[in-house]
Every structure is written in C-alpha cells, then in structure tokens.
Amino acid sequence: MPKTADIRLPDPSRWKALAFIALAQLMVVLDATIVNIALPHAQTALDISDANKQWVITAYALAFGGLLLFGGRIADLWGRKRTFVVGLIGFALASALGGAAQNQAMLFGSRALQGVFGALLAPAALSLLAVMFTDAKERAKAFGIYGAIAGGGGAVGLILGGFLTQALNWRWTFFVNIPFAIVAAAGAYFVIREPAGSRNRASLDIPGVVLSALGLVSLVYGFTRAESAGWSDGLTIGMFVASAVLLLSFVLTESKVKSPLLPLRVLLDRNRGGVYLSLGLAVIAMFGLFLFLTYYLQVVKGYSPIRTGFAFLPMIAGMITGSTQIGARLMTRVPARKLMGPGFLVAAVGMLLLTQLEIGSSYVGLILPAQLLLGLGMGTAFMPAMSLATHGVEPRDSGVASAMVNTSQQVGGAIGTALLNTIAASAATAYASSHAALGARNPELLKLQSMVHGFTGAIWWAVGILVVASAIAVTFINAGRPSAGPATGGSGSGEADGVEDEFKVPVVAH
C-alpha cells in the first residue's frame, strides 16, 4: 500500500495540455510527408538539380534522427515543458525561413533547423504525456489520441500538402507550421504543469552525445544514399561501417560512464526493447507504402495531388478508430502484446491485399479496404506501443525513453523508404527486361506495368516485415495489462500466466 505522500493528484489541466501536445505532434509528423508533395514545385522554383533535390528530405532526416537522443536528454535536464516550448518556437522560425527561401542553400538549411528543433520537440511531447497521465484508464485514452496522430499524421500531410501546393504554392507547406506552433506553444506555456522533481540534473554525457549523433546520422544517411546511389556504392558501405563502429562505441561508453545519455536499463528492458524493435519494423512497412501508393495514384491512376491526399482518408479513419476505439478501450483489459501482435497481423492482411495491385485496379474494390485494414491494425498496435515504451521508466529517464520511440520511427522511416524503393526499382527493371517485346509495341504501357510490378514485389516484403513485427511483439513483450487505478511506484504486484500482472508508473511527488 503506497504512502499518502507518494501519491500525486492528477493535474486538473492535463486534458487541455493533451490538446496542445497532440497539435504539436501532428505538426511534426505531417511535416515528414507534407514537403514530399511540394518538392517538385520547390525544385523548379529554386532551380534545384535532380542530384541535390534529395537534400530537402535528407537534411531534415539527418538532423532529426541524429539528435533525438540528445533532445530527449535535454528534456530530462531542462524540463519537458521548457524544451517543448523552445522546440515549438524554433520549429516555427525554421519553417518561416524555409517558406521564404530564395535559393537551395537557404531551403536545405531551414530543413536541417526544422530537424534540430523537431528533435527537441518530439521526445518532450511524449515524455510530458508519460509523467502527466498516470491513471491507467486515462493513460489509455491519452495515448490512444497520441497514437492515432503519430500513425495518421503522415497521411494528413499528404492531404494538406496536396491542397496547399495546388491551391496556393509550395511555400505554404512551410508557412502552415507557424500557426500550429504558435497555438501549441502558447497553450503549453499557460496550461502545462510539469510535475516537480522529475528532472535528471546529472551532467551531460558529451561523448555519448557525439557518438550517438554521428552514429545515427551515418545510419540514416547510409540508407538515404543507398536509395539513389545503390547498396554497393563505396560511400554507402562506408556509412554503414562507420555507423556500426560508432553505435557500438556508444553502447560501450554508456555502460561505463557515470551519467549516460541513454541508460542501458531503458534499452535492455525486454518490453521496451520489444516495442522499439517492432515499432521500427512496422514503420519500415508503412513509409514504403506511403511512397508506393502516392506514385501509384498520381502516376498510374492520374490523380491530382489533392485527390491523392483524400484517397488516404480511409487509412486515417482506420488508424483513429483502431487507436481510440479498440486500443484505448482494451488496453486496461488485456496485455499489450495481445493488441500489438494481432494489430500488426491485421495490418499485414491489408498490405497483402495490395500485392494484387494492377494498372486497372479499383480504388473502392481493393485500395479502400486495404487501407482500412492497414489503418485499423496500425492504430490498434501503435497505441499500446506508445504507452508501454514509457511505462515503468523512472521519471528522470522518460525523455530518453520517449526519444527512443521517435528514433525507432525515424530510422524505420529512412530504412523503409530506401529499402523498399530499391526492391521496387530492381523488380521493375527485371520486369521491363523480360517484356521487351511489349515495350517495342507500347512503351508507355510497359513503363506503367513495370512500375506496378515493382510496387507489388516490394509490398510482399512489407507484408513479411509486419509479420516479423507481430512475432517480436508477442515474443518479447510480456507485461500484463495495467491496473485500472492510479499507478504507483514499486514492482509488479504479482504473477499471472507467467507474466507480470501489471506494470507500474513511478509516481512523482510535488
């Protein structure tokens, strides 16, 4: 029985705070895809070469992915609210710079700055939820909303990017972030009340910061370069080797220093490790699908950017339903693995339908039901994953635990785009070579058939990746359902079916 002094009363403003945290998370997630739609227009306007256009995406991915662990540690050190507000203001200023860009250097620089401030903002947002919502049922609802946004924000970005690019111009895909950031920052400043005593004031682990940042940057850049230069390219291989050496050195350093950037106790917990790994694999499949469906709908089916964006609505609806109506309602009743494992399998079934894509495939008959299943499955799995990733960590570690969630997503996204796109390109080339006779008669038809064949070949891989993600979730994650009441510090209270009956959230006293 916990002592009275150990119990912290819930923050009366926590639900208002959730609205502003969710708004900021939506801004960060949709920014990852909103620029993709506008990229061809920005390239023309600023005279960016084909060789350099990838840096609009790569500059953001490198800064964001490389600095996430550092951002999570800063949140633990400075305070999550302060880091959250600073991240929002910086993101808004970087977005304004991008919208006003007059040349490619200015645009690339603004994207890198967006990545830097996003790396502060994203882990601070998730760790705020972790320390503000400690009651199991409320936590389920809060993370249901957060999980739906984290999963569906990318598709929302496609809709918004298409509308802004077509109705206004590409610069508004940057400017649109400014009102998001201002409202979220103002709301956070006045509403969020971070629990006292939850900071980690230990000295900053500078070697860990340098090794993790360089290691993650090398890994993300290696996969990004592989997409354009190939897997056998010397620099691509060099980046992977450097990443392996740097990240191994990082792990060895963290095991020896007094105040590690990423305490290994956070990473080596089997439940959190299972979440990070399965979530990263699921994101590989998802990001590849966003890319393929966008090209299929616009190039093969001839959809406009706006129509393409709206074509992703069933996936968003599925994610919201899966996260808030299935995941959130069942999370306090069943163990997380019984939501994540089946969730990833349902998503795999949706992906499996898309392996049947052909040039003349019906949107209503094939793509719509596939998206609904994919969204339902991902939404159901994402919600408990987001919650469990920060559940049971010490409050002083919640920032870096949150950063690991974002890191697995960011690295997964980079891997998914590069790996599946490379598989699709190879399959398309092989198909075109074996159907040269058709190319002589109708080169345009062969081009489209080769493209679709490449997509379906890569989607088969995505199906397999989701099945593996499901197996990892079921195998590694053994935490039982959370208790229905307020969480308290201490260890699990008992055993059920060989696993812990409940996993606890440490309570932070005011």
TrEMBL record:
Bilayer disposition of the protein: Multi-pass membrane protein
Main location per the UniProt record: membrane
Domain of life: Bacteria
UniProt entry keywords in alphabetical sequence: Antibiotic resistance, Cell membrane, Membrane, Transmembrane, Transmembrane helix, Transport
Transmembrane segment boundaries: 17-39, 54-71, 83-101, 113-133, 145-164, 170-192, 204-223, 235-253, 274-297, 309-327, 339-357, 363-390, 411-438, 458-477
Localization annotation: Cell membrane
Domain Major facilitator superfamily (MFS) profile: 17-482
PANTHER family xrefs: BLR6921 PROTEIN, MAJOR FACILITATOR SUPERFAMILY MULTIDRUG TRANSPORTER MFSC
Identification of the protein by name: MFS transporter
